[in-house]
Structures are given as C-alpha cells and as structure tokens.
Amino acid sequence: MLILRTCLLPAVLFFCCCNQHATTRTDEQKATQQKDTVYTYKKPAKNGIGKVYKGREIAQVMGFSGAGWLERDTRNQEENVQLAVKNLPVDKKSVVADIGAGTGFYTFRIAPKVSKVLAIELQDEALDYLKLRSKELKQNNVEVVKGMEKSPNLPDNSVDLALLVDVYHELEFPQEYLQALYRSLKPGGKIVMLEYRGEDPEVPIKELHKTTEKQITKELAANGFTFVEDKNGLPMQHFLIYQKK
Predict the structure, then answer these.
(1) Largest Cα–Cα distance in the chain?
(2) DSSP secondary structure string, 56-87?
(3) Strands (E), the chain
(4) Residue at 42 is within a domain
(5) Do 228 and 112 have their domain in common?
(6) Helix 174-184 and helix 213-221: axis angle, to 10°?
(7) Residue 227's domain is classified under what CATH number?
C-alpha cells in the first residue's frame, strides 16, 4: 500500500498542476480576447505606439522635458488661449478637472473663473511643478492630483467639467480612461476636447498628434457621451463639447 500511495501521489499532483495550469491559460486567453476586442496592434508608425483604438493609432507621450513648448511665448497667439478659456461652459460654482495639466498653462487661467480646478497629472515632475507654481501664484482653489494610466483618480460624481487640451490622443488606455471619467462627472457633466484639427493639412503638427472631429466623436459616443457642439474659432484646434448621457 505504501508503494501504491507513493506512485499515486505524483500522479495526483501532476493532474492538479496541469488542471490549474489549464485554468490559468484559459483565464489569460479570455483576458487577451477581451483586450483584443477593444484594441488592435500594428507596427508603430512614426510618433505612434502601435496600439489602435477604433481605427486611430495612439500617439507617443510628450514627456515633461517638453514643458518649455507648453509655455512658449507664442502659444497665446497661435492657439488663442484667451478665447478658449472664455468659451468654457463653466461658472463660479464649477469644479473643473484639467486632465494632463502639464505646466498648468490652462489650470491657472481657469482657476479665477471657477470654484476649484483639479490639476491631474501622471508624471511626478509635472506634479511637483504644479504644486510649486500653485503656491507661487497663491491659487488656493487649485488641487494637484496624481492620476493613473486608466483613470483620473477622482471620486464619482465630483466634477462638472473635464478639460483635455492636446492630451487625449496620447492616452494609452482611452476606453478605460473615458469610462472612469464618465463616472467622475456629475449628471449632465461635460467634457471639452481641444485637439489639433486632423482634417486640416495646414496645421503644422505631427499627424498622430492631430485628430478629426469624426474620430473623437466616434470614440466618445462609444463610452456614453453625446456630442453637443464644436465651437469654431480657434486657429488650429477643435473645441469639442460632449455631455454625459
């Protein structure tokens, strides 16, 4: 009997391990299949990461080393930032999330118009810069928040407006991020997308860092947002407003 038990034990262990391994592989396959229904993959184009969402290749992220470009002297004139801020659908009671705030170029221009601005950033260098700049400008209604790759890291139903200025095309997980953003917005909350116009070959921006209105609307509609309007008038960018259904 002892010999029999000794022979059977490895067999039982082998069966259990194989069964566990098979279950794990099945779970991995399911996860892969689920992921592939959302994203597809290709050889990366120039300035792209090779990951595609609804026909659009996601662009490479501009690191905080490019902060000087965000604060360039010509930006106000090139983008008519004053008009963009004026057109934001906000009032003194509004809570605004500036997604991918960068240096706070928009954050600190919006702050005097609203109740609070949540400056969302992923990069530690940007977070430190925003905190320092907020103290220098004595903007007590600016809160710096460390976001995540798939979420702005905000409570549900806490924000009236989410602003994304030339950042959406770089989100590595656009579907997950939009769904998290949907939860963060209050009922009737809005998203404003400022993106360089992909329809216009005259806009001097790299192709994957421009986006068309049609493409953005397709992606947001798939995640529960209704198109409201495109406030035309900016020199190079779309000013697209969407609302949470």
Answers:
(1) 89
(2) EEEEPPPPGGGHHHHT-TTHHHHHTHHHHHHT
(3) 39-41, 48-53, 56-59, 95-99, 116-121, 142-146, 159-165, 185-196, 225-230, 237-244
(4) no
(5) yes
(6) 60
(7) 3.40.50.150
Do 203 and 142 share a domain, yes or no? yes
CB burial of residue 55 (10 Å; 0-12, 13-18, 19+): exposed
Burial zone of 143 (CB within 10 Å; 0-12 exposed, 13-18 middle, 19+ buried)? middle
**94 and 6 within one domain:** no
Q: How far, in Å, CA of 41 to CA of 51, rounded?
A: 5
* Higher pLDDT pick, 21 / 165: 165
Report the amino acid identity of residue 199. Answer: E
Count of all residues that appear for the chain in the document: 245
pLDDT over threshold 80, residue 240? yes
Q: Are residues 146 and 220 in the same domain?
A: yes
pLDDT exceeds cutoff 70 at 69? no
Indicate whether 95 belongs to any domain: yes
In 3D space, the residue among 116, 213, 219, 102 whose CA is nearest the CA of residue 164 turns out to be 102
Q: How many domains does the chain have?
A: 2
What is the pTM (predicted TM-score) of this model?
A: 0.83
Residue 46 maps to a domain: no
User: For residue 62, is it within any domain?
Assistant: yes
